[in-house]
Write a structure and sequence with these properties.
Radius of gyration: 20 Å
Number of helices: 9
Structural class: mainly alpha
Number of domains: 1
Oligomer: single chain
Largest sheet: none
Helix content: 55-70%
Order of helices and strands: HHHHHHHHH
Number of strands: 0
Shape: globular
Strand content: under 5%
């Protein structure tokens, strides 16, 4: 049993996960399927007197998915838990924490932040999940990663479909300011810790294949490109709502 747990909780020395394979696409398909189910059954969920229990369960799953990352590090000291790599200064991590409080309290403010942070930051982790290169489907970290990085999307769409939440331009501004604060914190941590620290991937490209490999190593040029990319993703994330509002205005104008 100890050998199994040591293997299951640990990681390999060679690549066990590859991008754009079945192990990559299955969690994404499962997430999309769950979101579509929520959309299909949104009216029964809205009418359910115990609907809040669905939200509580989702919040619990979000917190467990995030905290189990650190529990694993404590359980397996050979993984090297240290402040260089494992401080809670990540977009994905805070989005998960905010999402858990969002679904419990039906918070519009937290929805605003989570929506834009997921679609402008966490989306990169889904496209190229570089941090699980050495932990494939036979490892705990594989499942923890996908739960942590997909349940936030489930929570956001749950609030959209069941509780009719939506982002606004003010939401985008609020989320952007929050992201700037997190980026400043990451820069400060990278500078304070020194070589080895790479929070928000601001210091350098990762050692494993990632979509961020296209960024230059120069800090200021890297930061400028990342800022432009995030801004563009904020705009793209809001476009569906812009077109929806525009269509509604045209329909209202026709009926007058």
């Amino acid at each position: 049993m100890k050998e199994f747990l040591r293997y299951f909780l640990g990681q390999g020395t060679q690549e066990e996960f590859a991008n754009f394979t079945l192990a990559h696409f299955l969690p994404l398909l499962a997430t999309v399927s769950l979101i579509l189910l929520i959309r299909k059954f949104k009216k029964p969920l809205q009418a359910c007197k115990r609907e809040h229990w669905f939200r509580y369960f989702l919040a619990f799953a979000l917190i467990i998915s995030e905290m189990s990352y650190y529990w694993r590090l404590v359980a397996v000291p050979s993984l090297g838990p240290n402040p260089v790599d494992h401080l809670p200064i990540t977009v994905c991590g805070w989005a998960v924490v905010f999402a858990s409080y969002m679904v419990i309290g039906k918070s519009q403010t937290l929805f605003d932040i989570v929506y834009f942070w997921l679609f402008s930051g966490s989306v990169f982790a889904l496209l190229t999940p570089t941090v699980i290169t050495y932990t494939g489907p036979t490892r705990f970290r594989y499942y923890q990663f996908w739960l942590e990085h997909t349940l936030g999307y489930v929570a956001v769409f749950y609030m959209i479909f069941v509780h009719n939440m939506r982002p606004t331009v003010r939401s985008a501004v609020k989320a952007y300011i929050g992201l700037i604060v997190l980026a400043i914190t990451a820069y400060w941590a990278n500078d304070l810790i020194g070589p080895g620290a790479n929070y928000l991937f601001m210091a350098r490209p990762e050692s494993t294949p990632s979509i961020l490999d296209i960024l230059p190593p120069n800090f200021f040029l890297r930061l400028a490109i990342m800022a432009l990319a995030v801004t563009a993703l904020f705009v793209v994330s809001y476009l569906p709502w812009y077109f929806k509002d525009r269509k509604a205005k045209k329909a209202a104008a026709v009926t007058k």
